[in-house]
């Protein structure tokens, strides 16, 4: 168990399939719009997030292309984009990754995504059963890593044949951009050991996360590798605990039982993911079982696949819950909240000071040094802070 006080590496999320203020309704929803994604990325860059996750899937914008677009409008922000073995050759992915790292000046992070629903995978031409997909991915990364680290790759495997492949232009980062990965099955953990730099888990209870970290550490150590850990969570942070729980209730206030049932049926039918099964087991589709651990709320998972839990509470409360995960070994958080633009501000302004992260980046001075308070934005500007008497 770790007791480090080093601040968490905190990333945000680009909702590239669309966004909204309420789950299970089109009321106050926002379509998938590149201009809106730009607003979120620019805000995250200024607010002090270290990077953003760009999701992958049939309903999402393609993550490499979207990252290249957003990189042009940001300065420090890193982009966690998906490599999905089987959707393109390892040599092609190596060229994509190297170019994106070069045009972003070394701001690329790579998210290995092997799983997914069998129906979507079949649409991408992937017909391998669950565990065999990881055998395929292992051969894929033999070629990919060799290419992006040395410029040369050769594998004549069961699934991948790449003969004397070359990559001429190297990435900025040496030996390559970091590899992130999440998967809860034994096959996934065995695949990740010795390969990935950061293992990601969805927001399960601290006990479950601790057990998973121990399994991954043991598997990595058996192959002579050390790995760091991150967690994917939603956040509902307000000035008080009561306000935060009211916001959580409001988020699902338009969500009908019929919509929940349809979503749960779809998850069960269309996914062979062990991680998804673990998410569903937290709440079992029931509204009365949503606080699955202190301040860990599973309401989002009623209709959202993948990451389905949120930390809910005041900044102090949420910071305390995060410290519990941090003491288990978590050093990275990939966060989100609905809607993502407004919640990026709330999390930065309320939570960051409690967890030791800096203030928003600004290139301009606010005033000539005289303390001021916000005066409503009128013509006279702000108001001088009254001196203590």
Mean pLDDT over all positions = 92
- Low-confidence region ranges: none
Largest sheet: 8 strands, parallel, barrel
Beginning-to-end CA distance, first to last residue: 49 Å
Question: Could you walk me through the main structural features you see in this protein, from its secondary elements to its overall organization?
Answer:
- The protein is an alpha/beta fold and 389 residues long.
- It has one domain (9-384): TIM Barrel, CATH 3.20.20.30.
- The protein is built from twelve helices and 17 strands.
- The strands form four sheets. It has an eight-stranded parallel β-barrel with strand order 1-4-5-6-9-10-11-15, surrounded by seven helices.
- A hairpin with a 2-residue loop joins strand 12 and strand 13 (296-297).
- Helix 1 (34-47) packs parallel to helix 12 (340-351) and helix 3 packs across helix 5.
- The model has no long low-confidence stretch (mean pLDDT 92).
Pick out its properties:
single chain; 389 residues; alpha/beta; TIM Barrel; eight-stranded parallel β-barrel; two-stranded antiparallel sheet; 17 strands; globular
Helix and strand arrangement:
Elements: E1 9-13, E2 19-20, E3 29-30, H1 34-47, E4 51-53, H2 63-71, E5 78-83, H3 90-103, E6 108-112, H4 118-123, H5 130-150, E7 152-156, E8 161-166, E9 179-181, H6 186-192, E10 198-202, H7 206-222, E11 228-238, H8 241-251, H9 257-270, H10 274-283, E12 291-293, E13 296-297, E14 310-314, H11 315-328, E15 330-336, H12 340-351, E16 372-373, E17 383-384
Parallel strand pairs: 1-4, 1-15, 4-5, 5-6, 6-9, 9-10, 10-11, 11-14, 11-15
Antiparallel strand pairs: 2-3, 7-8, 12-13, 13-14, 16-17
Helix pairs in contact: 1-12, 2-3, 3-5
